[in-house]
Specification:
Blueprint lengths: L1 H73 L8 H67 L1
Helix pairs in contact: 1-2
């Protein structure tokens, strides 16, 4: 009678543990899938933000260049050759370098989020496997315990 009760308690305990292992794995998988989706959205957002930053930079630069032309024009400076053209050309080159830095930083950030999304997808797959391995381990352990009781 006591042996029968012990086997029933072992079976119930194992069933609860198996349910917990599978439920925990499912929850962990969902968490990693959600994190992966968030990282993908963030990568997309970073690329859009980078494009907006480039447009803002260009507008700001064109205003800056326009103000310089007005100042030079009011001063009677001719724009065909010489120092004013050199200054404007140098400003443009510096602006292009700034644009390259904006693009590079934005792409670097977006790529980082994409890598994070891939890692979270892998973690989600492994969470499911881990749940099944834990279940198999629990069932094996319960079987061994039941055999030891006989």
């Amino acid at each position: 009678m006591a042996l029968n009760l012990a086997l029933k308690l072992l079976a119930v305990g194992t069933a609860v543990a198996v349910g917990g292992a599978l439920s925990g794995a499912k929850t962990e998988r969902k968490m990693h899938e959600t994190n992966a989706e968030s990282a993908r959205i963030e990568a997309t957002w970073r690329r859009k933000e980078t494009q907006q930053n480039l447009e803002d930079h260009r507008r700001s630069f064109y205003r800056f260049q326009g103000r310089n032309r007005v100042v030079y024009g009011k001063g009677g400076v001719k724009f065909t050759t010489g120092s004013p053209m050199d200054v404007l050309a140098e400003n443009e080159q510096l602006s292009l370098l700034d644009e390259d830095r904006i693009k590079e930083l934005g792409e670097h950030e977006a790529t980082g989020y994409e890598r994070q999304a891939e890692m979270d997808k892998m973690k989600a797959r492994y969470a499911t496997r881990k749940g099944w391995y834990r279940t198999a381990s629990l069932l094996t352990s319960a079987g061994t315990s039941a055999m030891a009781m006989d």
